[in-house]
Specification:
Length: 387
Amino acid sequence: MLRDAMSMPFEQPDPELAARMAALGLDRISAAAGETPVYLVGGAVRDLLRGVAPEEIGNLDLAVEGDAIELARALGGELREHERFGTATVSVGGREVDLARTRTEVYARPGALPEVEAASLAEDLGRRDFTVNAIAVALAAPGAVIDPHGGRLDLAAGLLRTLHRRSFEDDPTRALRAARYAARLGFELEAQTEAALSEADLATVSPERVEAELVRLLGEDEWRRGFELLAEWGLAPRAGLELMEAVRETLARPGWRGTTDEATAALVAGAPAIGRYAPSAGPLEQARELAALDEGPPSELAAAARESAPVALVIARAMGAGWLDRYVEEWRDVRLEIDGEDLMAAGIEQGPAVGRGLAAALAARLDRQVQGREGELDVALRAAREG
């Protein structure tokens, strides 16, 4: 099989590439594979050819002309198997490695997940999204590039080119990936690829898959450019990029870190409706209401904040609601010295009156109208009895 693969177009062995491949630490996989052909494919090859240092390469994708799951098991250690696609994920030398059986894909309808079956490396490379991601290097011949679709030429030209005319029709999420790669690499779409974008009907894709691609885009350094490209290509309305940026800056501040998931908050703030995907509008409306509040008694502001979702708090702060800094740094951590047991011991029946009394005491504590246990209890009892 390796001989068949090497009959595909490839360049003369590249000693520098071989050295960079060696630095990835894949010897253990080569030894475990034995005679089974294994190839480094996808983004790692693309980035090595672009001159990215091996230590800066992220997760690795390996194509196996054989049983990828069996090979993964032979490596030992923690293992995640995905039998439907014949893939497995293992950790090798502290780096996550995805092993996949070389395969073909058939799409029952546009936007559907593919049906897969085992195939050769040539067929596997032919199913990929862009030529620059359809390059392979055999672990057994680490200096030789297998490039049947001209990916290296497109790398040199700074172009993203699909492998066939129906690429976006089969899997419309490739259009979202095109924005991500174009933004990250600074590439442009090849003319026919750009013309084919109109065939990317993202309404045929589940909202979950669209959201997953947008989350990946947000993980890029050049994520703003990616969203701008989606708008330029007519795939999405122009997102609220300034507010998205402000949300991310807010979550980087002391007191706000970990308040909510950054990607979720950014998507809600930007509200990019794509296909059947649209982020929930509720938190954005809550955020607008919070941002519209004037400075007032801490008890009233804190009550409004407590009733809002964490993502709404972050977006409201990004909109300029500076009072929320006091909420996250001070007000939300205020605790009473009394509790419901104290009120019931003073004759208040268990029920709504207890909650009403404690709420009144907390409001008075926030507004600095009382201090200490006795003051809190006095306010709480009066409020509980007035009901």
